[in-house]
Design goal:
The protein is of the alpha+beta class and 231 residues long. It folds into 2 domains: 119 residues, Glutaredoxin (3-Layer(aba) Sandwich); 103 residues, Glutathione S-transferase Yfyf (Class Pi), Chain A, domain 2. A 4-stranded mixed beta sheet has the order 2-1-3-4, covered by helices on one side. The longest helix has 31 residues. The protein starts with a strand and ends with a helix. The relative contact order is 0.15. It binds glutathione. Glutathione binds next to helix 1.
Length: 231
C-alpha cells in the first residue's frame, strides 16, 4: 500500500493520475496547504521542503523498510520503475522520457507557477513580472506544440512525462490561447479523455473544492514563507 500525501493541485494530480492509470492501491492523506498542514512535524519528516506531493511506499520491491519520497518527478520515476509502466525500458526510450520529465520539473511547472502567481495573486500587478512569465509560459507551450507536431505524446509512448505536464497546461490560467497550439490542444484533449485521468480529477473533488488561496490566512501561509519558516 502507498500513502499519498496530497492536495488538489497540479503537482498532486500528477501522482493520482499515475496511481489511477496503474491501479496501484493507495491511501490519500490530505495535506491542506492553505491551512498549513505542510508544516506538521510528521509531514516534514517525509517532505522536508514542506510541499506536496509525497509518498510512503510500505511495500517496496526490495522487501525492505518503507520508502518515503518527495518531489513529484522523483515520485513518478520511482513508481514507473516499481511497476515497469509509463517509461520505456530501452536506453533511448527511457532517456527520451526522462528529458521531458525534467523539462517539466525545471521549466513548465516553475514558470507556469510564477505566471499564475504574478498575474493572479501578487498584491501589486507588476507588468514586467507578468509579461516575463506569460511570455515564458507561451514559449514553453510552443516547445510542446512543436514536439507534438509529429508524435502523439512527448516521449515515445504515453508516459510519466505526459502525466507531469498535463496538469500544468491550463491556458486559461496562463494567459494563453490554446488555438495557437493545435498539437498541444489535441494532446491535452486525448489525455483528458483517459478514464484514469478523469478518475484522478474526480477524486480531487471528493477531497477539496476550495482554491488553496482563498483568504488572507491562506495567502499568509503560502506566500509569507522565508528562511524563518524553515528554521
Ligand atoms: N517541485 C515540487 C513542487 C511541489 C509544490 O510546489 N507543491 C505545492 C502545491 S502544487 C505545495 O505543496 N505548496 C505548499 C507551500 O507552498 O507551502 C514538486 O514537483 O513536487
Amino acid at each position: 500500500m502507498i500513502d499519498l500525501y496530497y492536495w488538489t493541485t497540479p503537482n498532486g494530480h500528477k501522482i493520482t493520475i499515475f496511481l489511477e492509470e496503474t491501479g496501484l492501491p493507495f491511501n490519500v492523506k490530505p495535506i491542506n496547504i492553505g491551512k498549513g498542514d505542510q508544516f506538521d512535524a510528521a509531514f516534514l519528516r517525509i517532505s522536508p521542503n514542506n510541499r506536496i506531493p509525497a509518498i510512503v511506499d510500505h511495500a517496496p520491491v526490495d522487501g525492505g523498510e518503507p520508502i518515503a519520497l518527495f518531489e513529484s518527478g522523483a515520485i513518478l520515476l520511482y513508481l514507473a520503475d516499481k511497476t515497469g509502466r509509463f517509461i520505456a525500458p530501452s536506453l533511448r526510450g527511457r532517456n527520451d522520457c526522462l528529458q521531458w520529465l525534467f523539462w517539466q520539473m525545471g521549466g513548465l511547472g516553475p514558470m507556469a507557477g510564477q505566471n499564475h502567481h504574478f498575474a493572479r495573486y501578487a498584491p501589486e500587478k507588476i507588468p514586467y513580472a507578468i509579461d516575463r512569465y506569460v511570455n515564458e509560459t507561451g514559449r514553453l507551450y510552443a516547445v510542446m506544440d512543436r514536439r507534438l507536431a509529429d508524435r502523439e505524446y512527448l516521449a515515445v509512448e504515453y508516459s510519466i512525462a505526459d502525466m507531469a505536464s498535463y496538469p500544468w497546461v491550463q491556458p486559461e490560467r496562463h494567459g494563453q490561447d490554446i488555438g495557437e497550439f493545435p498539437h498541444l490542444a489535441r494532446w491535452k484533449a486525448a489525455i483528458a479523455a483517459r478514464p484514469a485521468v478523469q478518475r484522478a480529477y474526480a477524486l480531487a473533488l471528493t477531497i477539496n473544492t476550495i482554491p488553496s488561496v482563498s483568504d488572507e490566512q491562506s495567502r499568509k501561509v503560502l506566500f509569507g514563507q522565508s528562511k524563518d519558516t524553515v528554521r
